[in-house]
Amino acid sequence: MTPNSDNADKYRVKSLDHAIDVVEALADGGRDGLAVTEVATAVGMSKSSAYSILQTLLRRGFVASQGSGPTRRYRLGLSFAYLGDRVTSQTGLREVAMPYLEELTRAAGLTSRLAIFDEGYAVAIGRVDGPGTIRIAPFLGRRELPHATAIGKAMLATLGDDEIHRIIKSTGLPARGPNTIVDVDTLLRDLRRTAERGYAVDDEEDTAGVVCIGASVLDRTGTCVGAISVTALKHEMRADAVAEIGVLVRRYADTITAELGGR
Amino acid sequence: MTPNSDNADKYRVKSLDHAIDVVEALADGGRDGLAVTEVATAVGMSKSSAYSILQTLLRRGFVASQGSGPTRRYRLGLSFAYLGDRVTSQTGLREVAMPYLEELTRAAGLTSRLAIFDEGYAVAIGRVDGPGTIRIAPFLGRRELPHATAIGKAMLATLGDDEIHRIIKSTGLPARGPNTIVDVDTLLRDLRRTAERGYAVDDEEDTAGVVCIGASVLDRTGTCVGAISVTALKHEMRADAVAEIGVLVRRYADTITAELGGR
DNA sequence: GATCTTGTTCGGTATCACCAAACGGGGTTA
DNA sequence: TAACCCCGTTTGGTGATACCGAACAAGATC
């Protein structure tokens, strides 16, 4: 009899799950990687088990190793770069949008990003860094809260109220930055305003000191397939520049939408 | 008694290997993904096994599914985008080089790429698409032959002869394009010339109709950490433009090298 | 509305993933 | 230079489990 027989283990391949634990440990392992013992303790398994998993991943290019003997260290391999590139290309949206994103970055002088919807969350699949020395390095592929980001709110604003309720019921409205909207009615008002003016504003709602402005991208059927945004430090942005940049972002989003056959 | 007891299975986690087979099948599965049955036949396992693996990967975000019931299809998930971005960022080279790569693309009007060495192969970790309508879409993270690409030859040219022999012994000198160098002595001569003028030229050696020009990037210890290159269609490039662009690529490579503290 | 195709569920068994402990080789210190 | 220590690598045994075959169910197609 299992101690807690919840059905979380149904159709779960345990050893694969453990291997994923190893991979995620390596992702957080930093530049110079992790030793076998460090991996084993990080994921809570025996040294030899971790070793077998690492060897298997190594042979497939999912981890790389440097050094040998007692100084050997493991880090993520380039197979992830390959598959990651395929994933972000698979939608097709990325190929169309990236050139315009580069234009937008040049025009606004700010880092810009491209995101899609994934299970209610906003996920960036493209990025063009701006010229500024400030390097707000937003990783690709990480899930971001829809209600606390410009890119998320831009996408939410294209949906019906029932769909919005369904999403925020699963993600919740957790506070992230000083101004995060944690109230449903306030969020709905903000989304209505977003839809009217055509762009979403995140004023320190996700991260203190950071302002984002985003706009949605539609496909030929009129459904939202993603959004683009620009990011700036609050103290570098004049208050009256927000509307100006908002219109700019909206214009580029419309261009991409048109390219996709949308209207 | 195993039929063929070669030690290829030492420290191999079979179920993990199978899961990787599934992942690679999905990578080739195209935009709209694969059904469970298609996955099972592609990797040669039972439907239910494939199902368990897919469910496990699904819960961790490594695959995504659309549809339900008999129309359900699976494709790669965004966790790969996240990890892939971390891998390409982990070297640190990418953060430094990408802004210059964008400049280079603008200056040359051509698609440019950034690559590193991986087990003797050249692997692209960054790319900036040029304005041309031709979209030579070189995937990131895929291993490319060192002797048949500008980016690979640029890196080889920084090594000693013994190191070069060690690498081409493992990769071989297979023909890829009309002008692939398949002879060791010819390759060594080409590499010496590459070292002298500072840039490598791939004149239809990897792909027919495609010309690449690359130059190496060094770190502060003077060892080669990667290379950059530009790609063009042969019929669009004047013969005398090669030297001109070669100097340009060399200059940007030097700039990146200097940024890394190299000399 | 009948039928076919395909995703999902279930149970048994041979396989194998996991652990503990031993081995061996660099790195470090005295 | 030599002894110690630490850590990656190897091995063998066993209890858990990954895999398969077959049955079930739910849409799609005509």
Notes on the protein architecture:
- The structure is a homodimer of 263-residue chains.
- By secondary structure, chain A is α+β, with helices and mostly antiparallel strands.
- Helices cover 43% and strands 19% of the residues of chain A.
- The longest helix of chain A has 19 residues, at 241-259.
- At the A-B interface, helix 1, helix 3, helix 4, helix 5 and strand 4 of A face helix 1, helix 3, helix 4, helix 5 and strand 4 of B.
- The structure holds a DNA duplex (30 and 30 nucleotides).
Name the features:
homodimer, 263 residues, alpha+beta, Arc Repressor Mutant, subunit A, Beta-Lactamase, 2 domains, six-stranded antiparallel beta sheet, two-stranded antiparallel ribbon, 9 helices, 8 strands, 43% helix, elongated, disordered N terminus, DNA-binding
Brief description of this entry?
With 263 residues, the first copy, chain A, is α+β, with helices and mostly antiparallel strands.
Number of helices of chain A: 9
Instruction: Describe the oligomeric state of these chains in a short phrase.
Output: homodimer
Within CATH, the superfamily of the largest domain in chain A carries the name: GAF domain
Strand neighbour order, sheet with most strands of chain A = 5-4-3-8-7-6
What is the level 1 CATH name of the largest domain in chain A?
Alpha Beta
Total domains of chain A = 2
Low-confidence stretches of chain A: 1-6
Tell me the distance between the termini of chain A.
59 Å
Q: Beta-strand percentage of chain A?
A: 15-25%
